[in-house]
């Protein structure tokens, strides 16, 4: 990653290491359980997601991390046979039991997927479309928002002279940053990221990881990652999921540094040391 590209970010200084001083819950998850066609895949999950912090979710394949993430903006509504119970408290509302406008909810809680999924349209249209869908009618305002979002993800300098070309012609890392810009353009409060670097080459992955770090303090981020080193580098808080009797459970949650350096549960210790999982 070149220094020039990194310096084109506009999100300010990176702050590393220390967890947020005064953690304030942004999402409160209480006794969450998910089943697919009556088969329970996740149960008894309770934790707070803190405002302005990055929370990393780790654990072996199949223990329910993606399913958990998908409940937070009700994407599970679109999973056939999914049943979700418990409570997810967000801004005075219970997202599972109160009436919720899911379009508005997903504007406030955006999702980034493992594989970059830009629309097969121009770079510009990728960002204009969600703004139009959410009622931003003023062309000048849309232009300013689009430019800012591209600057926020460090893409502006790379694409400003080819905004009308296809987003699919971008590299994988650029596509993923465009997808992050597409979420940021709607000014979300929370970003859910499902293994956002795992489909990228190491250099692109490093650029996206740096971007995630720069989002800290400005957005609440929940990231699922199999890359334990990455979780340690970016997260303030970490949650470790594990399967017990074929059901995913949250085994341990806490400050990232504590979880990695002094885990309380022996399963966490075994997983992060590579002895299990
Ligand atoms: N749409 C679905 N329909 C039925 N079962 C599902 C669905 N999505 C996930 N599952 C099941 O739920 C369980 C948890 O899957 P999930 O993808 O959440 O795990 P994960 O920890 O994110 O795994 P990975 O790290 O491999 O992505 C698995 O047994 C999976 O087969």
Automatic annotation (TrEMBL):
Q: Which residues form the ABC transporter domain?
A: 27-272
**Organism from which the protein derives:** Nitrosomonas cryotolerans ATCC 49181
- What UniProt keywords are attached to this protein's entry? ATP-binding, Cell membrane, Membrane, Nucleotide-binding, Phosphate transport, Transport
Q: What is this protein called?
A: Phosphate ABC transporter ATP-binding protein, PhoT family
* One GO location term (cellular component): membrane
Q: Which GO terms describe its biological process?
A: phosphate ion transmembrane transport
One MF term in the entry's GO annotations: ATP hydrolysis activity
* One Pfam family hit: ABC_tran
- Which parts form a coiled-coil structure per UniProt? none
Is Transmembrane helix set as a keyword in this record? no
Which InterPro entries has this protein been placed in?
AAA+_ATPase (IPR003593), ABC_transporter-like_ATP-bd (IPR003439), ABC_transporter-like_CS (IPR017871), P-loop_NTPase (IPR027417), PstB-like (IPR005670)
């Amino acid at each position: 990653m070149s220094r020039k590209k990194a310096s084109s970010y506009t999100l300010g200084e990176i702050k590393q290491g220390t967890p947020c001083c005064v953690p304030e819950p942004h999402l409160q998850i209480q006794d969450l359980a998910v089943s697919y066609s009556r088969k329970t895949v996740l149960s008894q999950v309770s934790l707070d997601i803190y405002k302005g912090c990055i929370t990393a979710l780790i654990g072996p394949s199949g223990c329910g991390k993606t399913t958990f993430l998908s409940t937070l903006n009700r994407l599970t509504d679109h999973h056939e046979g999914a049943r979700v119970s418990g409570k997810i408290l967000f801004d005075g509302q219970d997202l599972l039991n109160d009436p919720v406008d899911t379009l508005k909810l997903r504007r406030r809680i955006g999702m980034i997927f493992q594989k970059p999924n830009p629309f097969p349209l121009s770079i510009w249209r990728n960002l204009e479309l969600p703004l139009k869908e959410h009622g931003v009618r003023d062309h000048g305002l849309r232009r300013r928002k689009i430019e800012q979002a591209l600057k926020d993800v460090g893409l502006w300098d790379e694409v400003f002279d080819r905004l009308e070309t296809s987003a699919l012609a971008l590299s994988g890392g650029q596509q993923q940053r465009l997808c992050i810009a597409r979420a940021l353009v709607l000014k979300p409060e929370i970003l859910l990221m499902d293994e956002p670097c795992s489909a990228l080459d190491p250099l692109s992955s490093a650029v996206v990881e740096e971007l995630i770090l720069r989002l800290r303090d400005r957005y609440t981020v929940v990231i699922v990652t199999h890359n334990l080193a990455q979780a340690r580098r970016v997260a303030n808080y970490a949650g470790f999921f594990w399967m017990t009797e074929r059901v995913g459970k949250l085994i341990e949650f806490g400050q990232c540094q504590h979880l990695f350096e002094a885990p309380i549960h022996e399963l966490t210790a075994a997983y992060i040391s590579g002895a299990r999982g």
